[in-house]
Amino acid sequence: MKTFCRLTALMLMLAPTTAMADAKPNVVDQAFSKYDRNKDGYITKAEIPAGHEMLEHFDMADRDHDGKLDKREFGIVLKMI
């Protein structure tokens, strides 16, 4: 019985990991890939189309003020629009 309980617990712990590996990229990942045209892992104002509403929120989301958005900062922009 102990062995059965341990195996069940192990399977339950591994189930979310397996599901995550099969999951499709989320909305932030997909949008980030679309706007990160040079694929350097950051989005600059130059990579965002002129007049796009993301530009209005860019500086607020750029928490480290380096002039580019990492994926976390980009997620903040998406929540603002």
Explained architecture:
This protein is mainly α. It has one domain: Recoverin, domain 1 (Orthogonal Bundle). It is 59% helix and 5% strand. It contains four helices and two strands; from the N terminus they run ααβαβα. The relative contact order is 0.13.
Keywords:
81 residues; Recoverin, domain 1; 4 helices; mainly alpha; 59% helix
Write a compact overview of the structure shown:
By secondary structure, this protein is mostly helical. Helices cover 59% and strands 5% of the residues.
Write the layout of secondary structure elements.
Elements: H1 2-22, H2 27-35, E1 43-44, H3 54-61, E2 68-69, H4 71-80
Antiparallel strand pairs: 1-2
CATH-level-2 architecture:
Orthogonal Bundle
CATH class: Mainly Alpha
Q: Which secondary-structure class do the elements indicate? A: mainly alpha
Share in β-strands: under 5%
Overall shape:
globular
Strand order of the largest sheet: 1-2
Q: How confident is the prediction overall: mean pLDDT?
A: 80
- The tally of helices reads 4
Ends: how far apart? 54 Å
CATH superfamily: EF-hand
Proportion of helical residues = 55-70%
Element pattern in H and E: HHEHEH
The total count of strands amounts to: 2
Low-confidence stretches: 7-12, 14-24
Question: What is the rounded Rg?
Answer: 19 Å
Biggest β-sheet, characterized?
Answer: 2 strands, antiparallel
